[in-house]
Design a protein that fits this description.
By secondary structure, the protein is α/β, with parallel strands linked by helices. It has a single domain, classed as Thiamin diphosphate (ThDP)-binding fold, Pyr/PP domains (Rossmann fold). It is 42% helix and 11% strand. Strands 1-7-8-4-3-2 form a 6-stranded parallel beta sheet, with helices on both faces. β5 and β6 form a beta hairpin. α1 packs antiparallel against α10, α2 runs parallel beside α3 and α2 runs parallel beside α8. 48% of the residues are buried. It binds thiamine diphosphate (TPP). The site of thiamine diphosphate has 15 residues, from β3 and β5.
Length: 332
């Protein structure tokens, strides 16, 4: 049942779709670089975890979903939210703690949410999104829809009990869900092989009798190919898939992490696999776009992200007399 898929079987993609993927990758990267600038200027509060380097996973999976499918994330959630179509404006405003933010300024970086886009959240606790996505998959099946859930989490989360309980349930009930592991080799400063008794995460699928696939998570076309198959299976009622995407984060664990633990040679190795130039090269080779056309997309996205910052700056704080609104705690 388990298999390694390190190269796309074939690049069966039209130019227009390849450009959608390129745009999404660049949006994720540009947004995160801007977040770093704004964080160090004191515009954001609390922990902020950036996704640089891992963009091909979010883009490769989410761009294959339907708008009514569900997505859950972790605390590293900005780019998943962007890929589902949550606007850069409403995410940046959320990070600035403004009332126009996608969680009304109450959540911040780790708690993005959009009911409109079926983006069921960033979660601060490791593995916390796994039961939520499993519940969403159950809900779709129970209501008789063919909606699919995609659940993103790190390698560290696969050693957490919720991972085992939920994969067992999803296999047992044949739920329409993709469990997408972003294996970036590190859980803060813990190297994955030191923390997991089974290093190949996709092999953990065998314990539940469900398909497990390992894919090059720095290659958006390879991720896309694997995601398409898993989504088609889920939609056809054939159940869950565990997808291990090998990837790397180009920055520290959070913006508070000086990133001094990881070997510079390791960082350099992964930098060379950057998914954005890889897709750009493919697009040029296929004649889908020229370098100048790709640069024009880069500029448009830069403007979109700058506009998001301006929007966040200009937006009001949540009013003080609404401090307790949108909270579930009962009044005394
Ligand atoms: C239940 C729980 N335990 C511990 C933490 C502290 N913590 C925050 S991030 C993290 C590492 C998780 O690593 P991984 O799942 O690989 O995701 P990555 O950060 O690499 O994306 C830990 C242990 C937490 N947030 N939640």
């Amino acid at each position: 049942m388990v298999q390694e898929r390190l190269a796309p079987t074939q690049a069966d993609i039209e130019g227009a779709e390849a450009l959608v993927l390129y745009r999404d990758l660049v949006l994720g990267r540009t947004f995160e670089d801007m977040c770093a600038q704004m964080y160090y200027r004191g515009k954001m509060f609390g922990f902020v975890h950036l996704y640089n380097g891992q963009e091909a996973v979010s883009t490769g999976v989410i761009k294959q979903l339907r708008p009514d499918d569900y997505v859950t994330s972790t605390y590293r959630d900005h780019v998943h939210a962007l890929s589902t179509g949550v606007s850069a404006r409403s995410i940046m405003a959320e990070l600035f703690g403004k009332a126009t933010g996608c969680s009304k300024g109450r959540g911040g970086s780790m708690h993005l949410f959009s009911a409109e886009k079926n983006f069921l959240g960033g979660y601060a606790f490791v593995a916390e999104g796994i039961p939520v996505a499993t519940g969403a998959a159950f809900s779709g099946k129970y209501r008789g829809t063919d909606q699919v859930s995609a659940c993103f989490f790190g390698d560290g989360a696969t050693n957490n009990g919720q991972f085992f309980e939920c994969l067992n349930m999803a296999a047992l009930w044949n739920l329409p869900i993709l469990y997408v592991v972003e294996n970036n080799l590190w859980s803060i400063g813990m190297h994955h092989p030191r923390a997991s008794s089974v290093v190949d995460i996709y092999r953990k699928a065998d314990a539940f009798g469900l398909p497990g696939v390992k894919v090059d998570g720095m290659d958006v076309l390879a991720v896309r190919a694997v995601a398409r198959e898993a989504i088609a299976r889920a939609r056809a009622g054939e159940g869950p898939t565990l997808i291990e995407c090998t990837t790397y984060r180009f920055r520290g664990h959070s913006l508070a992490d000086p990133d001094e633990l990881r070997d510079p040679a390791e960082k350099e190795f992964w930098r060379k696999q950057d998914p954005i130039p890889r897709l750009a090269e493919f697009i040029r080779e296929q004649g889908f776009a020229t370098i100048d056309e790709l640069k024009a997309i880069d500029r448009q996205i830069r403007e979109e992200v700058e506009d998001a910052v301006q929007f966040a700056e200009d937006s009001p704080e949540p009013p003080l007399d609404e401090l307790y609104r949108f909270q579930f705690a009962e009044d005394e």
